[in-house]
Specification:
Strand content: 5-15%
Shape: elongated
Helix content: 40-55%
Number of domains: 2
Order of helices and strands: EHEHEEHHEHHHHHHHHHHH
Mean pLDDT: 90
Distance between the termini: 64 Å
Strand order of the largest sheet: 1-5-3-4-2
Structural class: alpha/beta
Largest sheet: 5 strands, mixed
Radius of gyration: 28 Å
Low-confidence stretches: none
Amino acid sequence: MYFKHLQWNVKRIKEMRLSIDPKPQYQRGPVWGLPKKQLLIDSIINDFDIPKIYLRHVKGVGVFDYEVADGQQRLTALWEFLADEFPLDEIDGRKAELSGQYFSELPAKDQENLLNFELVIAVVYQATNDEIRELFARLQKGEKLTPPELRNSIASSLGDLIRAMAITHPFFEKSPFSKFRYKTDDLLAHAYGLRLYGGKRDIKAPDLAEMYIEFKNGVDQTHVSSVNSTLSYLDQLQTSEPKCIRTKWGFVDLFWTFSNHHGTLPAAAKMANLFKDFEQRRLKHTKNPRSLLLDGKSESDRRLYDYIAAFQAGGGTKENIKIRHDVLKKELC
């Protein structure tokens, strides 16, 4: 099995419709509804990139020259639109006048542009049935975008600020948090969610996406300075006690506690030891927090129970963030 990557325009795809088998046995049937088909055509008209299409070369074996290994829905949508089987949806921006039109109704220049649009075609040669099925299976195992990846696709000055800080701030160079799939961006998004809303809103994934949109035009510099200052204190903790901050919600809760009490915090080395001891106790009781409520337990044990219970009930809700903040304030500050 080997591959050749070619560039075919839409006109060639149209002319080869009868030479390409869109439904080999391993393929699923058509699943795209009208909105997805219209979005694909909209994307082409507006010059967005389209994922590559995989074709298996089978010329001489049957009635077709190629089988679709991946891209069945895209090819079908193209063929149907070119055959006037559905119209365009509403289009925004410079091509708005094309809204609702079928292919045959488009101005000649727009028809030509669409037909000349080039797609990347990966042609698979000399593939056995087992190899092509494995290729198909692998191509269908694409991972769903995570909330941080989805937020990163939002055009936002706040998002750009978070991206830059996640790359350049010393805290993230020393921390155990991975930059893979924007995980460090996710930490900072939670930090900014707390800072910008003062702990009065939830900071779950949908709330953070709304925050990116709300602050798409920029953030007051006082908030940026506050976040940077708190991160620098957290960096001192990591320097004093490497990797003492190891969990996402440990970071979030420490950030919010330190952000609200920055002027009265002890030396970083002392704070690192206090938090390390707190984390050891938390991990010991996470599986059975009710043991902290037994007779003879201290107020500190009761607070630790409240902390664990609040996290388990919902890490990103404002009510539970406040409970955990109050616990850490008394335990650490």
